[in-house]
Amino acid sequence: MSRRRGTLALCAAALCAAALLPVTGCERQPPARGFTVAYEEPAAADRGSARALRERRVVESAATELNGYLDLPYEVTLLGRSCAGEGSGYDPGARLIELCYEDLTEQRELFETAGRRPAEEEAAAVMTETVFHEAGHALADALDLRFDADRAEEDAADAFAALMLIREGPPGERTLLTAARAYELAAAHPDPDPGPDPGPDEHAPPAARAAAHLCRLHAASPARHPAAPTAQPCPDTWTRALTPLLRRPHRGSA
Ligand SMILES: [Zn+2]
């Protein structure tokens, strides 16, 4: 997964050497930091989803939100790609978040199965939540946060996704509601063909993830989300943990 970035770095160094540029010409570039966006060519079956992801600027918008809120001391690449069966995830060695075009297809089909057509908007909303979830893993890595169990880190990544969306106010809350709905649908319609056994799932069951998101929405705005949550409490893992990376003084509201 790191090969792509390594190649680019090598090319940049070779260009400087080949052109015999003054060393300062190469050094003038500040080191990249923050969340950046890149795409790989999709597999043929993923072309439609790849195009939809780019046209809707799902990843770019999420990166802008992340970089406006947090000052990450190094670069983490958000990479859209075909994942050939592997789900979206964060690779700490490569500082790379892989966002699978297939996930968009899967989410669109999930909503369509439930009678929602077209479901492009819903699929894009779930991808936004996925970007923030994976960014939560990247931040846990950047902050060297320790968790008692893999499940605890997954719960924290979900909590970070919720935090980022709730920060946006009603539009972000609607995105989070859609993500919660996707988890409810996943619980009601388990994948009949999950592929090769990926081993034990580190995430909470989909119904629990949905309930936790709804709990966070209720806690953030009981007026807009009056339904009593079935999951309680929904602790905030991040308010203090993020402090070293915050761009602006934090007043404890997020
Ligand atoms: Zn995760």
List keywords for this structure.
alpha/beta, 254 residues, binds zinc ion, disordered N terminus, 51% helix, globular
Give the strand order, joined by hyphens, for the main sheet.
Answer: 1-2-4-3
Question: How many H/I helical runs?
Answer: 9
Share of residues in helices: 40-55%
- Residue stretches low in confidence (pLDDT < 50, at least 5 long) are 1-23
Profile the largest sheet: 4 strands, mixed
What fraction of the residues are assigned to beta strands by DSSP?
5-15%
Task: Please sum up the structure shown.
With 254 residues, the chain is an alpha/beta fold. It has helices spanning 3-18, 23-27, 47-55, 58-69, 101-113, 120-142, 150-167, 170-188, 206-220; strands spanning 34-39, 75-81, 89-91, 96-100.
List the helices and strands and how they pair.
Layout: H1 3-18, H2 23-27, E1 34-39, H3 47-55, H4 58-69, E2 75-81, E3 89-91, E4 96-100, H5 101-113, H6 120-142, H7 150-167, H8 170-188, H9 206-220
Parallel strand pairs: 1-2, 2-4
Antiparallel strand pairs: 3-4
Helix pairs in contact: 3-5, 4-6, 5-6, 6-7, 6-8, 7-8, 7-9, 8-9
